[in-house]
């Protein structure tokens, strides 16, 4: 569950419910059972689009057709797959008040962030009944509640009725899906100052600009996974910007207008055909065309006919941002779950758009606004704010964080370093909470002299203080800690990051006597540490008086982030101002190694099997029973390694084909496979610069 108490639900919602939320369908197997593996794949797919959160067992999830056990099964699967790293909501409406309460309490126990409730249908005929029903459910759960106003439940609540519902303490807002524009607009104007109002269609943003109100969340629809692909998430980008106050009509018209018009045509046509029922069959068919698991709808709904599906595909395919569904449906394409928490599956900051880096990113430390602008001009991927005059390294003043966050593009990463923190969980948690409120990309919490248990407690309290804000928690140890009496061993970094519930880690140095990171921790040690972290899905960052001559070593280690300051100052000294020319040159040299133009190790040699695929069916020994593709293009290395590790955990019978682009990621995947005992069968270079690596898992009959 999100880190709030019942009386804090409203504040939590205002801070957390932002951007695009998805609505999950419930996929079914051919024998009409809930397809839990398909549901997991669907979640990983929508996560790769950069979506902020998702809801299950709503109308589009066919909740009305599910048994009580199946509703709980769907909720349990979603909670397990989200694993606390993705915001989730569960729809709990039932004709039975007792069952609605029990579903809400089940969602609460399983760690859902909020509940969604609508009128109890069949005998619900008045607004008084609805308010009383919702109040009784709300009284029996700690969860924040979004009310769902939809005519599908037999009654549409008026604006005044919605205001009454939002006066219930933990009812934080309304998904206003009445299909009545006047009700939506009036609800925004009358209730929107006190509660979160979301109309699930883009027209609302134009009215908001015209009438002076603001919608901060699209809660929720299916347009993300019907319109977007992981490499071209135009709809999610548009919604994230629009909900932040940046309505880009030209962007919408260029990328989304035509596909939305097609959606409106099929949505309205399917509803007309079914007498007004939501077009679940159309959405399921559309989703399958985009690579989602769907299956049939349940009675009394009926699937689209083969002719209707063919017609839909003929109209949809030309509008897709790239191609259609996989040309070889026997291959299951898994888009790496966004484990690497500074970045999402597209290489962009969670919930943000506009970045497409994979591989190492450049972090530049700045101590004032002028330096931040220099770092930005030079092309730094992350601008890290710190105070070099406070102790060994300290925190930037909040006013600087606000100023920089305002002048740097919202798509850019701005992180905050707290430096060496005191062994006081509450004090540190308060500082971390402040960084999250100021929209820092990440906040780094460092330990010098501390015992391990205290450091874990500090980090866990910091995690709770962040809640579900976008800000990521980065634990930090210093490579030279052992020079100090009682210094926390830096070799414990990965373990500390995991136990402390961090999103990633940073290894830095405190000593400023000319020695750097590699004087305290050699390349092989750092490489194993970074690889271990990637397998755990953690972001990795290395810093500590690094210079240009260290780039080859860094490239062989391949952390997600390389942090510098002195190397990009005007004279190469960290106490002199950051210069954009030095930043640009360092970035250029880093990119030359990422692209493979500068080869930092022996060329990747041939492996058994030659340059083509020696086994036409991908099954060299007759033991494997499938073929899985991990598409790593545009993803950071941790995401690729985590996806590969996850695949091997649950399926060692299938061959795995990894599609890679970044040269350093290629080396890492090969190294990972060799270390894990997997067998590299072939490598094939494609004309677009990608490398396809075919891997036979350890334990597939050849080991």
Structure notes:
An 8-stranded parallel β-sheet has the order 7-6-5-4-3-2-1-8. An 8-stranded parallel β-barrel has the order 10-11-13-14-15-16-17-18, surrounded by 7 helices. Strands 9-19-20-22-21 form a 5-stranded mixed β-sheet. The relative contact order is 0.08. The protein has 703 residues and is an alpha/beta fold. Helices cover 38% and strands 16% of the residues. Strand 14, helix 18 and strand 15 form a beta-alpha-beta unit.
CATH fold topology of the largest domain: TIM Barrel
- Give the neighbour order of strands across the main sheet: 7-6-5-4-3-2-1-8
Show unreliable segments: 323-357, 602-625
Q: Please tell me how large the radius of gyration is.
A: 26 Å
Please summarize the sheet with the most strands.
8 strands, parallel
Helix content: 25-40%
Name the features:
25 helices, 703 residues, alpha/beta, single chain
Task: Summarize the model shown.
The chain has 703 residues and is an alpha/beta fold.
List the helices and strands and how they pair.
Elements: H1 9-16, E1 19-23, H2 36-47, E2 53-56, H3 68-82, E3 87-91, H4 97-109, E4 114-117, H5 127-139, E5 144-149, H6 159-165, E6 171-176, H7 181-191, E7 196-198, H8 203-211, E8 217-221, H9 223-227, H10 234-243, H11 249-255, H12 257-273, H13 280-289, H14 306-316, E9 332-334, E10 361-366, H15 369-377, E11 382-387, E12 394-395, H16 398-407, E13 413-420, H17 425-437, E14 442-447, H18 452-466, E15 472-478, H19 493-499, E16 504-508, H20 517-520, H21 523-535, E17 539-542, H22 551-557, E18 561-564, H23 580-595, E19 627-631, H24 637-650, E20 655-660, H25 663-676, E21 679-685, E22 691-696
Parallel strand pairs: 1-2, 1-8, 2-3, 3-4, 4-5, 5-6, 6-7, 9-19, 10-11, 10-18, 11-13, 13-14, 14-15, 15-16, 16-17, 17-18, 19-20
Antiparallel strand pairs: 11-12, 20-22, 21-22
Helix pairs in contact: 2-3, 4-5, 6-7, 15-23, 17-18, 21-22, 21-24
């Amino acid at each position: 569950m999100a880190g709030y108490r019942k009386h804090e639900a409203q504040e939590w919602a205002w801070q957390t419910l932002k951007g695009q939320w998805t609505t999950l369908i419930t996929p079914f197997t051919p024998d009409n059972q809930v397809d839990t593996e398909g549901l997991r794949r669907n979640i990983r797919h929508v996560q790769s689009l950069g979506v902020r959160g998702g809801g299950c067992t709503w109308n589009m999830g066919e909740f009305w057709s599910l048994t009580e056990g199946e509703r709980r099964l769907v909720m349990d699967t979603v909670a397990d797959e989200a694993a606390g790293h993705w915001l989730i909501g569960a729809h709990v409406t039932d004709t039975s008040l007792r069952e609605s309460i029990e579903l809400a309490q089940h969602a609460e126990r399983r760690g859902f962030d909020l509940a969604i409730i609508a009128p109890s249908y069949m005998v619900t005929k008045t607004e008084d009944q609805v308010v009383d029903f919702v109040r009784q459910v709300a009284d029996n759960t700690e969860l924040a509640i979004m009310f769902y106003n939809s005519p599908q439940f037999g009654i549409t609540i008026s604006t005044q009725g919605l205001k009454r519902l939002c006066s219930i303490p933990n009812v934080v807002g309304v998904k206003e899906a009445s299909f009545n524009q006047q009700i939506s607009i009036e609800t925004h104007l009358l209730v929107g100052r006190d509660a979160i109002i979301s109309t699930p269609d883009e027209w609302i943003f134009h009215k908001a600009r015209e009438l002076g109100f603001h919608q901060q969340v699209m809660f929720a629809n299916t347009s993300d996974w019907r319109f977007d692909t992981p490499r071209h998430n135009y709809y999610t980008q548009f919604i994230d910007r629009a909900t932040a106050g940046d309505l880009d009509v030209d962007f919408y018209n260029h990328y989304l207008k035509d596909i939305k018009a097609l959606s409106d045509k099929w949505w309205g046509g399917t509803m007309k055909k079914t007498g007004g029922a939501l077009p679940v069959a159309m959405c399921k068919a559309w989703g399958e065309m985009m690579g989602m698991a769907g299956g049939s709808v349940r009675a009394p709904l009926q699937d689209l006919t083969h002719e209707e599906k063919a017609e839909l595909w003929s109209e949809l395919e030309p509008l897709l941002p790239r191609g259609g569904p996989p040309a070889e449906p026997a291959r299951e394409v898994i888009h790496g779950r966004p484990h690497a928490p500074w970045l999402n599956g597209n290489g962009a900051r969670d919930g943000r758009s506009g970045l497409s880096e994979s591989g190492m990113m450049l972090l530049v430390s700045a101590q004032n606004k002028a330096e931040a602008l220099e770092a930005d001009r030079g092309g730094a991927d992350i601008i890290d704010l710190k105070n070099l005059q406070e102790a060994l390294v300290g925190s930037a003043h909040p006013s600087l964080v606000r100023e920089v966050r305002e002048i740097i593009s919202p798509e850019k990463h701005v992180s905050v370093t707290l430096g060496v923190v005191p062994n006081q969980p509450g004090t540190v948690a308060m500082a971390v909470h402040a960084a999250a409120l100021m929209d820092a990309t990440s906040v780094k919490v460092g330990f010098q002299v501390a015992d391990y248990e205290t450091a874990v407690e500090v980090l866990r309290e910091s995690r709770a203080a962040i809640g579900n804000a976008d800000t990521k928690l980065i634990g930090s140890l210093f490579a030279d800690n052992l020079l100090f009496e009682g210094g926390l061993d830096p070799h414990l970094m990965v373990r500390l990051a995991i136990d402390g519930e961090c999103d990633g880690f940073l290894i830095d140095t405190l000593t400023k006597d000319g020695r750097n990171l590699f004087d305290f921790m050699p390349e092989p040690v750092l490489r194993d540490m970074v690889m271990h972290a990637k397998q755990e899905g953690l972001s990795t960052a290395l810093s500590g008086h690094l210079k240009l001559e260290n780039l080859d070593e860094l490239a062989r280690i391949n952390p997600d982030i390389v942090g510098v300051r002195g190397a990009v100052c005007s004279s190469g000294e960290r106490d002199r101002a950051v210069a954009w020319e030095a930043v640009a040159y360092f970035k250029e040299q880093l990119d030359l190694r990422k692209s493979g133009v500068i080869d930092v190790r022996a060329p990747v040699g041939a492996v058994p099997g030659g340059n083509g695929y020696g086994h036409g069916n991908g099954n060299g020994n007759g033991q494997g029973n499938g073929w899985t593709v991990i598409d790593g293009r545009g993803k950071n290395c941790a995401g690729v390694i985590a996806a590969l590790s996850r695949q091997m955990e649950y399926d060692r019978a299938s061959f795995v084909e990894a599609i890679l682009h970044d040269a350093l990621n290629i080396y890492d995947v090969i190294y990972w496979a060799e270390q894990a005992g997997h067998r590299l069968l072939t490598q094939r270079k494609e004309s677009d610069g990608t490398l396809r690596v075919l891997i036979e898992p350890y334990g597939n009959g050849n080991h």
